From TrEMBL, chain B:
One of its GO terms (biological process) is transmembrane transport. It comes from Phyllobacterium myrsinacearum. One of its GO terms (molecular function) is ATP hydrolysis activity. This is ABC transporter ATP-binding protein. InterPro entries: AAA+_ATPase, ABC_Ni/Peptide_Import, ABC_transporter-like_ATP-bd, ABC_transporter-like_CS, Oligopep_ABC_C, P-loop_NTPase. The lineage of its organism: Bacteria, Pseudomonadati, Pseudomonadota, Alphaproteobacteria, Hyphomicrobiales. GO terms for cellular component: plasma membrane. It is a peripheral membrane protein. Keywords: ATP-binding, Cell membrane, Membrane, Nucleotide-binding, Transport. Residues 12-263 form the ABC transporter domain. It is found in: Cell inner membrane.
Amino acid sequence: MKAAPLLSVENLTVRFPGATNWFGQVTSQVHAVNNVDLCVLPGESLGIVGESGCGKSTLVQAVIGLVRLTSGRVLVDGHDFAGANGTLKRDLRQKMQIVFQDPQSSLDPRLPVWRLITEPLHIRGGMPAAALRARAEELAVSVGLRSDQLDRLPHEFSGGQRQRIAIARALSTDPELLILDEPTSALDVSVQAQIINLLLKLQRELGLSYLFISHDVSLVRHFCDRVAVMYLGQIVETGPAEAVFDDPAHPYTRTLLASVPSLENSLPDVDASLTGELPNNRRLPAGCYYRERCRSAVPGCELPQALLAVPKANAESAPRHQARCCLHMPA
Amino acid sequence: MTAHSVQRPHALSIENLSLEFPTYAGAVKALDGVTIKVGNAEIVGLVGESGCGKSVSTMAATRLLPEGRYKITQGSIRLFGRDPMAMDEEELQQVRGKLVSTIFQEPMNALNPTIRIGQQLVSVIRRHEALGRKAAEAVAVNILADMLIPEPARIMQAYPFELSGGMRQRVLIAMAFSCNPGLIIADEPTTALDVTVQAAILRLIQGRARRTGTSVVFISHNIAVVSQICDRLYIMYAGRIVESGPTRAVLDRPQHPYTRALLRCLPERVRPKEPLESIPGTVPNLLDPPPGCFYRPRCPEADARCMEKPHSTALPGGQAVSCWQRAGHPSHPSSEVPS
Ligand SMILES: Nc1ncnc2c1ncn2[C@@H]1O[C@H](COP(=O)(O)OP(=O)(O)OP(=O)(O)O)[C@@H](O)[C@H]1O
Ligand SMILES: Nc1ncnc2c1ncn2[C@@H]1O[C@H](COP(=O)(O)OP(=O)(O)OP(=O)(O)O)[C@@H](O)[C@H]1O
Ligand code: SF4
Ligand SMILES: [Mg+2]
Ligand SMILES: [Mg+2]
């Protein structure tokens, strides 16, 4: 019996108005997130990777209620989060914290660092200033800032230092689920290692769960238990991190992994077919979303594809490895 | 396109630059004797610990730091042979954009949230080129398409908040490209891009440097990317350049203990979920940096000599390192130590 999920997302769809006519009526829609299902168990980390603009940030913002769901449900600890209100809503919201992709815009420029870090605690109330400051110091040091920097203002910091302020702040309320949208892309590898080690330690000790968006495939592989690969607002492949990255089943995942930069390889020639037909999220394709760019397309790909278990030689090794591709349909 | 004569000065030459920010607590010594040279058509990487002064160096060179809030205590800067500190506002406007474009680290800060993307691009293009609105719009759509932005014509009509992080970053790159500058300063330009789009954009940047002789300063924490695109590297630590040289030499035969430690922190080297290697300790307090080598408190190789500031030692093959352990015997200060 598996533990009950801390977060489960069911059939989530988010659309934005794409264009309006003279009368302010919406004439086209942006299909940012399309029927996404996912769950995060207590103590688990789920990585999300995918093309720039495929809906990762929209998805997690919908999860915490910053973007309206067009349809679908978000369950936190088994409770419908979007439908909740009053103290239940507050209690559920308290379980989650997010570090935004562009954290700069979420830091009040007039507050010193220690106030920024403890702002969520301050809003929750009940802690004297001295205790807040002590907590700020502890958090600041844990993300590699120095205690002598606590009274400085955000503009006096570098990009990576501001990112660490945002991470310390998200940790301040001891959330159960931490959503991290590109948390370490502004950090050098040593500070990145320090933060990843801290997150792994919190996970081991407190059973924290993570929803971790990153373009850094080797980092996701290192940090996450499971991963979901997104393309055009859809999950096209999901499974244990090592199964997906070592034995990718979906052609998009393969393309993605083929261009991971490394110290050994020179810059790949990006072949026109990889980037040729750009996905258009205003008119969703009828069949497989990846078909126009896919070099493995066969008859059958023009039909809608479902997320199905990837057949494996060693069947029990990765029963949860699924892909949305007609090449993996059971015969 | 600009004609490149042989004797053209460096695109960017920062010479022994020291810079500080006066604050209530004292002066933050952000740069200490930084020398960076960027030749024509050269792609030069700046790598180093978060907060070590990469952005400040390049922002000082383009006079983008808040006026009156910083002080240059020594050294000089030349952009295509001219001193930006001696320019008036009008000259600066000419230089920024026409000669030099910056792709900023935080895209949201660099875009005006209340103006449509197309309008922002068109006004940048028209500031530097005598084009009508329609013609400038066509140029803008083309550049967005080059950046692999889907539906560029529609994105012209969008506001910044309607774009994903990576799309905003590509809009900034498009802006930097749009006025055909001689020098592009790219501050973490691809952090929000998936690896496929990233590779395509890096190709574009590289192609531009090779074809039109554009010089590029490429600031990045992604060492794999740096290894793929940069001709030369400068490694910075706490406001000083600690090592420099041709990319392959620096990455294959790192000389400075900091560079070596940095390369050990890459996640590829450890089993999943195991702690990653990081450099113990923190960067020094720039209000009150320690005497001698700034890396000394964290350095496994430090000895008594390191209480003095190490000078830069040139090594064969164009590499240079500021570390006593690579500086040869103190009684033969001129001797060079091969690796
Ligand atoms: N408020 C909005 N109005 C209209 N379209 C939007 C809005 N927010 C996002 N979009 C669109 O939704 C799509 C998904 O954007 P999202 O920010 O979720 O992508 P992402 O996967 O996080 O990309 P990146 O890796 O570049 O950050 C994009 O096409 C974007 O233009
Ligand atoms: N206006 C300011 N006032 C005081 N200190 C400042 C100011 N701007 C920058 N600094 C300090 O100068 C140092 C260098 O900052 P810089 O932004 O150049 O770092 P960076 O190398 O670009 O780092 P990152 O990789 O995190 O972006 C940092 O320690 C920062 O705290
Ligand atoms: S000079 Fe000394 S302290 Fe500095 S890096 Fe070299 S050995 Fe280490
Ligand atoms: Mg995003
Ligand atoms: Mg910076």
